[in-house]
Every structure is written in structure tokens, then in C-alpha cells.
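Complex record, four chains
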Amino acid sequence: MGRWEPNARGRLEQAALELYIERGYEQTTVAEIAGRAGLTERTFFRHFADKREVLFWGSGPLREHLVAAVEDAPDAAAPIEMVARAVQAVGELMGERRESARRRRSVIDANPELQERELIKLATLSAALAGTLRRRGVTDPAASLAAEVGLAVFKVAFERWVGDPAQPGLSQLIRESFDELKAVTAGSRLQQR
Amino acid sequence: MGRWEPNARGRLEQAALELYIERGYEQTTVAEIAGRAGLTERTFFRHFADKREVLFWGSGPLREHLVAAVEDAPDAAAPIEMVARAVQAVGELMGERRESARRRRSVIDANPELQERELIKLATLSAALAGTLRRRGVTDPAASLAAEVGLAVFKVAFERWVGDPAQPGLSQLIRESFDELKAVTAGSRLQQR
DNA sequence: AGACCGATGTCAGTGACTGTCATCAACGTA
DNA sequence: TACGTTGATGACAGTCACTGACATCGGTCT
């Protein structure tokens, strides 16, 4: 057995989530989180860059998953279709954990600092998607737009999914939102020259 | 003459921008900003909620402008068209100050904290747009999507505009990006059921 | 004159985050 | 077996963003 209890990182993550839910994000100090995990404040910052990051480390694997899905899409697919497939794949992963997503979401919704972090994580995903599209030969305005728009669709679908228990599964909501996107952008008056 | 030099807020803003450019955002302390403006640190925080906000207070008027443009759009216009008009209007406003936009952008690009703030400001604009659309009778998935997608288009156009001096005016880039959006989302394989 | 107001200064905090050095079990190696 | 190395942690001091409370003092109103 090691010198310390195993899984320090996991204990910190768990303690942080609990405290953020119990008292709110701002009312929780890093020292309290570390204390509940049986560690010191300094150690917290060795595992997470800052107090917010403990809620967002999962976005790394998410990014890899998205990128892989775009890389694996058939050549014949249109760019937006590649993105749609990737977003779908992620949606199916998250679809399992609706309750835990809702808990996490309630914490984030209550604090603007956390919302900022969430947005930059999404922007990172979008940039990764756009880069992958470019590597597959999609030229630039289209690549950025497809990635950006695809993530916007995901965002809208995800919000409906966590916000209303009466809604169907995430996968289906994403599909519906992509259809809605098509309807919205096909507005006959879009050409305004 | 008043007891103090006038325009404290403006002096703080000016001093902050200068210092952020000279030394970088992180290397600048609020005390230094206040000192250059002939004020104290405490006074800085009376004018700006935090060290970043000094770069972003302009987004308030921007929001009002966007919302007004959507409110003034003709009833016959499709939702995405209302958003496109609003974004165009804003684009024409900013189009004048390309150099100052570039300076500001270089500061923001160099610091993730500032990028986070920028993103949440954009999200606020998107939410305001969506709310205005709803008030005009657009139902919800469509309203959110039109707002979100419209701002994504703006973002892409804006990035090209500030990033490459060889690009045409912002107004034209926004028009082109909306066209590109239409092309991208019209991909024949979008229906993936 | 005197009461009040509003912008600023002063000062003493709290808490996030960092740099640095010490500790000590585990592990490899002579 | 002894010994050097490594890696995760603790201890501690420090910086800086941000806040609350109270003092100051021209300008303004009555």
C-alpha cells in the first residue's frame, strides 16, 4: 500500500462537487474542499489549475472523441454532416447520465465564473472540430462555420435536455435541432443583397 | 472646477488599455492602472466590477443596438433575417474602427481569462437576441438557434476582419459569411434519419 | 449657516493562486 | 543490505484581486 490514500484527484473532485452543491461555488473555499478530501490546499492546485477546473477536466476526452468522430466520417459527407455525426456520438455518450448532468448544470447555472469556463471549453471544442475539418480539406470560412454552428446546435439541444425532464433523449433532441437549424437557415429571405 | 479631475472612468480605461498592451494583462496590477490614472485601486473597482471588465463595458450599448434592430425589423422577415439585419447594423458601427479593434483583439488573444469574458459577453448578446425574437412570436428552438447561429456568423466574420488586413470591410464579410452559412447548412446529407 | 450628497481615499481584511523547500514511502541498483 | 532517486504530498510565506467599513470634503440645497 502506498504512503497515501489512493485517488487523490478523484477525492478532490468528489468533495468539490458536493460542496459546490451544498453551499454554492462562491461560498466554498479551496481549503474546505481539500480538507474534506483529506488533503491540503496546495495539493488541490497540483491537480487542478484553478477552483473551476475541477468541474471541467472531462472536456479533454470529449474533445478527442469529437475529433475522432470527424476523422472517421466518410469522405462523401458534407462538412456539416461530419460535425453532426460527431455531435451525435457525444450526445449518445452523455445521454446516459442525465441526472449527473443536471446536478452539474445547476451548479454552473448559479455562477457566472463557471459559465465563462464552460463557454471557453465549448469554444475549444469548436476550434478542434474546425481544425479537423481543415485537415480533411474543408476550406476555411466553411470549416469554422460548420464547427461553430454544429456546437451551437449541441448547446441548444443540451439545454433543452437538462432543463426539462419531459424532453426526449439527448440524441433525439440533437437530431431535431439539426432539422430545426436547416429550417431556420433556409429562410427564403436570407439573401439580403 | 470640481474637486477631482473629470472623467475618472475614461482615464482608468485608457490607462488599463495602455498597460495591457505595454506589459500584458497578467503583468499589470490594478494598483498600477489606478496610479497611472491618478486614482486609487479602490476607485478602480467602483467603476469596473473586475480587472477584465474595463475592456468590455462597451457590450452594454452593443446589446441595446442589436435588440433595437431586431425590434425594428419588418414582420415579414424570417427570424434568421431579423438577426442578420441586427448583426449587419452592428457590423457597420464597428467597421469604422478597425485599428482600435485590432489592438483590443491582440490583448484579448494573449489571455484566456479575457477570452472567457469575451465569450460570455457574446453569449449575453445571443440570449438578448433570442429573447427579443421570442417577444416577436418566434417559438423557442428556432429563436435560440437563429440567435446563436447569427452570432456565430458574426464571430467568424469578425475574426477574419481583424485577423487579416487584406480582407474587405466587416459589413461585406458578414454578408459573405451568411451566404456561406446557407451553403453549409444546405448540405444535402443533413437529413440523417 | 448648516444639512446633505456623491465621488474619492484609507485601511484592514479574505481568499485564490504561486514559489520554494522539506518529507518520506517506494523503488531500483550496487 | 545500504544508498541514491523519484514522486506525491505538506508547510509556509508571499502576491494580488476584490470587499466592507468608515473618513474626507467640495458642491448643492434650504
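Note: Chain B is about 70% helix and 0% strand.
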